[in-house]
Amino acid sequence: MALARRGGIGRYYNVNGWLFVAPALGLIALFMIYPILWSLWMSFQSGRGMMLKFAGFSNIVRLWNDPVFIKALTNTLTYFVVQVPIMILLALILASLLNNPKLVGRGFFRTAIFLPCVTSLVAYSVLFKGMFAHDGIVNATLEAIGIIGEPIPWLTHPFWAKVLVILAITWRWTGYNMIFYLAAMQNIDKSIYEVARIDGVPAWARFTHITIPLLKPVILFTTIISTIGTIQLFDEVYNLTEGKGGPSNATLTLSLYIYNLTFRFMPNFGYAATVSYVIVVLVALLACLQFFAARERDR
Amino acid sequence: MNVRTYLPRLTSVALAGASLLAVSAAEAKEITVWCWDPNFNVAIMKEAGARYTKSHPDITFNIVDFAKADVEQKLQTGLSSGTADALPDIVLIEDYGAQKYLQSFPGAFAPLSGSVDYSGFAPYKVELMTLDGQVYGMPFDSGVTGLYYRKDYLEQAGFKPEDMQGITWDRFIEIGQQVEAKTGKKMMGLDPTDAGLVRIIMQSAGQWYFDKDGKPNITGNAALKASLETINKIMAANIYKPAAGWSDWVGTFTSGDVASVITGVWITGTVKAQPDQSGKWGVAPIPALSIEGATHASNLGGSSWYVLESSAEKAEAIDFLNAVYAKDVDFYQTILTDRGAVGSLLAARGGAAYGEADAFFGGEKVWQNFSDWLAKVPSVNYGVFTNEADTAVTAQLPALTQGTPVDEVLKAIDAEVSAQIQ
């Protein structure tokens, strides 16, 4: 209303504002919106390399009959279901331990736990690959202290390869989530804890009834970010398995399958685009679900 | 996790815009080449370039060293983007992938039929780069296979070099068990996520994942069945050291942990890179299956040079490849001696280097042997879906070792391949 009364000047400011953001909008349209729309169009085409032809819904039909896609989807969801809760819980526990002002050397511990986050994805994957090799340092240590008799086939057994990927991404990303919780915890009013302590609320109940509810928006945020990250998992698996998602496709993720369809197999850009839209749909669904779950607890 | 959130975007954006970030076009009279392996292809191309520059001082070379997967990815991205600016003049392509590129990107590669005399090359190399009557590449190295073995370990186990000649796979496994009993060393390194050994054994009996028409040849493929059974026996006998990935596998023999290596001749440079193992290695023909059509010769990998149709230096690039790779017999002697590269130009085999004894292999005439075996490699149609079939095979290997009957494993492979190749 205020704008309408100012008339011409308001319109002048309006135009000026649009002019300022126009270059950015133009670039976003060119490098974000155009590729997104073009890949949607591509997902309705099929063929070899540049010889793409319109194929209607045949790519979507193909998804259902493609055992490798089903395998990649199952693996990705397994990572998500197992890894995200473990990591979020671990990050919460670590954050609340490190938030204790009486803890000696907490600056050191905070840095140490956050440090994995600044390492390059490729570098740490390569390092993990060496550490978890058949006669690598991890197997050697476990054998030396007598936990295992035979070396664990970390990279060559379908089950252990999945465990290794989960270990790796948990190591890499727990500290990242912890920093969010630490920051949020410092915003919780200390008087709430004081009151609780005076009322004789035990430490565990303070954690579950004060810390967690007050951190809920941050927990929701980190859960969604972690979900997106895990559903799009690529670097770690690519580098741990030399791009193959092996052994026997046990670690293959959707993103790695897209890569293989585009660059390793006979290039079928149409089908690869269809699989990328599966990720889009999956992330959207899971994010909605998490928003919904978080809203439920409000009542 | 915001780093990872860029990935799907990357996939789509890469298709549209990656060429902007890639290397810029070659300058006038500079021939840009993309290839992998600094000790092999890159070094050999540098040698070839130096020879050509001597007679053509106006032409220089820019030889770019990438990992093989990166060459393939950059090439595929560049070709699909439709802009040729980012592409090199000459690119190295592995033979298994040749038809895939030729059929997926028609018009992207320059036909060389009119410029090169192909009658001088090993026929199987020429065939795999032919499409609709046109030949597109310059045949380069062969992946003829051999059984490299540690004479010292085998001697300790009571075997002489004669005992390694012309053996079957069953005999190979027996020898492996005795080697382990006597020396504590495993017979070979094996990467269960790599189907290379399956391909070697299968091709040695004249079969491939696909038949002559490119149709899947899985369930009725006696050679594939026998090679899966062989792998299963090797695993059951536990005569292998497990390796995860290529460098780990190379480590099994450079470290002296295993008694033999079965692979393509291009590994020679890596084997010889351990001077302390000089004189301890021998080379024999690979073991054979006991089925019809079985031979002691096979092929693994090998690659060829291709000229991009869009190249500004197309004429110079073709002339260069023709002058060195199709005519210079002396060049092939140098790369054989320096790098262990067995070329596919047949005339090169008459050169002096092929007849020489190699001290590293205890004075054996290994090159003569390899070139004899090269002539015996059964010719097969690699088709366009070898990577897909390979993935299906490695996906089913664990089921095989857990006791699933071979015929069921073949059916599962067939189902996966059929779903993948539409």
Task: Provide a brief overview of the structure.
The complex is a heterodimer of chains A (299) and B (422). Chain A is mainly α and 299 residues long.
Describe this structure as you would to a colleague:
- The complex is a heterodimer of chains A (299) and B (422).
- Chain A has 299 residues and is an all-alpha fold.
- Chain A has two domains: 2-59, no CATH class; 66-296, MetI-like fold (Orthogonal Bundle), CATH 1.10.3720.
- Chain A has helices at residues 2-6, 8-42, 58-64, 67-98, 106-114, 121-131, 137-144, 158-186, 190-198, 203-231, 235-240, 254-264, 269-296; strands at 45-48, 51-54.
- A two-stranded antiparallel sheet of chain A has the order 1-2.
- In chain A, helix 2 (8-42) crosses helix 13 (269-296).
- With 422 residues, chain B is of the alpha/beta class.
- Chain B contains 16 helices and twelve strands.
- Chain B has a five-stranded mixed beta sheet with strand order 2-1-3-12-6, with helices on both faces. Chain B has a five-stranded mixed beta sheet with strand order 9-8-10-7-11.
- In chain B, strand 1, helix 2 and strand 2 (60-65) form a beta-alpha-beta unit.
- In chain B, helix 15 packs antiparallel against helix 16 (406-420).
- The longest helix of chain B has 16 residues, at 222-237.
- Classes of the chains: A mainly alpha (299), B alpha/beta (422).
- At the A-B interface, helix 2, helix 4, helix 8, helix 10 and helix 12 of A face helix 1, helix 3, helix 4, helix 15 and helix 16 of B.
